[in-house]
Each structure stands twice: as C-alpha cells, then as structure tokens.
Specification:
Helix content: 10-25%
Distance between the termini: 16 Å
Oligomer: single chain
Shape: elongated
Number of domains: 2
Bound molecules: flavin-adenine dinucleotide
Order of helices and strands: EEEHEHEHEEEEEEEEEH
CATH class of the largest domain: Alpha Beta
Amino acid sequence: YDAVFLGMGLQGVNALAAKDEDADGVVDAVDYIADIRQARDLSRLPVGRRVLVIGGGMTAIDVAVQSKLLGAEDVTILYRRGQEQMKASLFEQDLAQTRGVKIKHWVMPKKVLIKKGKAVGLRCEYTVEKKGRLEGTGETFDLPADMIFKAIGQTFVDAAGGALELSGGRIKVDAERRTSVQGIWAGGDCAAGGKDLTVAAVDDGRRAAESINAFLKA
Ligand SMILES: Cc1cc2nc3c(=O)[nH]c(=O)nc-3n(C[C@H](O)[C@H](O)[C@H](O)COP(=O)(O)OP(=O)(O)OC[C@H]3O[C@@H](n4cnc5c(N)ncnc54)[C@H](O)[C@@H]3O)c2cc1C
C-alpha cells in the first residue's frame, strides 16, 4: 500500500497495583461495557449486589450507572484524588449520583479480600497529596463487595514493536497526523496528544484523509 492509517485505539489495561487483583469477581470495566453493548438479553449478564468501581473517568461513571440500572443494590466509585481532579466531568458525576451511585474520594485500593477464591471485598487506604505526590495515610478500612470493577484507564499496546516513534507512550504524529515513518498516518486514541474523545478521533481521521489525498496526488 502507498498509504496506511492506524486507528487501533487502546488495547491494554492499567494494572491496579492492589494485591489479588486477578481474583474471581474483579472485572475489567471496558470488557463489561462491551458485554452490555453486545448482550441480546441483559437479564443474563451477571451483576453484583454490592459493586465497587475503581477509577475516576468516563468508564468508571459508565460502568457504575449501568450496574445500578442492571439492578445492583449498592454501587460506590472509589477515586484516589478529589472531586475536581476526576476526569469525569461534574455533569457526569452528578448524573451518576442522581442514579444512586456513591462516590468516595481520596481512597485507593490496597488488597482484594477473598473467600473461597472469590472477591468478597476490598481493603482501601485513605490518600493525601503532598507536594503534588499522592500517598497513603496508613489508615485503612474494608468495604464488602461481590463485584469490583477496574476502570483505571487503558494503555496503548505498541504492536509495531518500536518501528514508529512514540511520545508519552502513544504514536507520535504531526498536525497532519503523519507518523515518523513516511506513508503511515495515525489518529484517534492510539495517537499522542489527543483528547480520548470520539469527536477528536473523527477529526484525526479527516485530517489524515486530507493529508493522504495530498500525498497520493503529489
Ligand atoms: C467506557 C467508555 C466510555 C466512553 N465514553 C465516551 C463518551 O461519552 N464520549 C466520547 O467522546 N468518548 C467516549 N469514550 C472514548 C471513545 O470511545 C474513544 O475516544 C474513541 O472510541 C476512540 O476511537 P478510536 O477509533 O481511536 O479507537 P477505538 O474506538 O478503540 O477503535 C479501535 C478499533 O481498532 C480495532 N483494532 C485494534 N487493534 C487492531 C488490529 N491489530 N487489527 C485490527 N483491528 C484492530 C479495535 O478492535 C477497535 O475496534 C469512551 C470510552 C470508553 C472506554
């Protein structure tokens, strides 16, 4: 091909750094949302009674609200910093709270509590910010849960094995969305400097298409 556009999004998931995060009952929020979107019969989807969601972005809000709508009794979002630092907008936070979702700030997960191989709760630690650095206060508490969602962000997986220059862990592009390799463009979440929004991915596609068109005509 004379021109290739890469738009593979983010395929990796950040690790929680909490002990036993791979226990049964700890679920990746993005996978669960994909299951909801593709389910023919929502009543067959497993949903916890007491649900904890770890994260502070749109994915956390989405999975918390969806869990509530699917019948979870108690849904709490745990975020390690304050309300104003949450990536989810105040509008989205409000939306979740009006649906009955609780949001706890300044807490981080320490350890998944397990009984007979299954998650039954989460040990959390209060956090504090000192000189811009987040640290635990040492004070912990346990929250019961039968479902714990990880919604702590996705990461770019460099399938090209270093062939393309990266910036901040994503593919480096210029204003026309050209990568460091001639003939290859990239856009959307996999490209550096973006906003991780659908509208931004569409804009990247348009800019790259115009650039590719000019390149092929030259
Ligand atoms: C839970 C959640 C809620 C969100 N809510 C909003 C919202 O309300 N508003 C908003 O603007 N944005 C929202 N976003 C962000 C938005 O979804 C992304 O910014 C947008 O989808 C990025 O588009 P993209 O084309 O770069 O990547 P994607 O939409 O991720 O598409 C990438 C595609 O490439 C495919 N792919 C990957 N690797 C390969 C390969 N090797 N070969 C072939 N195909 C491959 C993937 O399967 C996928 O289909 C949300 C994201 C999440 C996770």
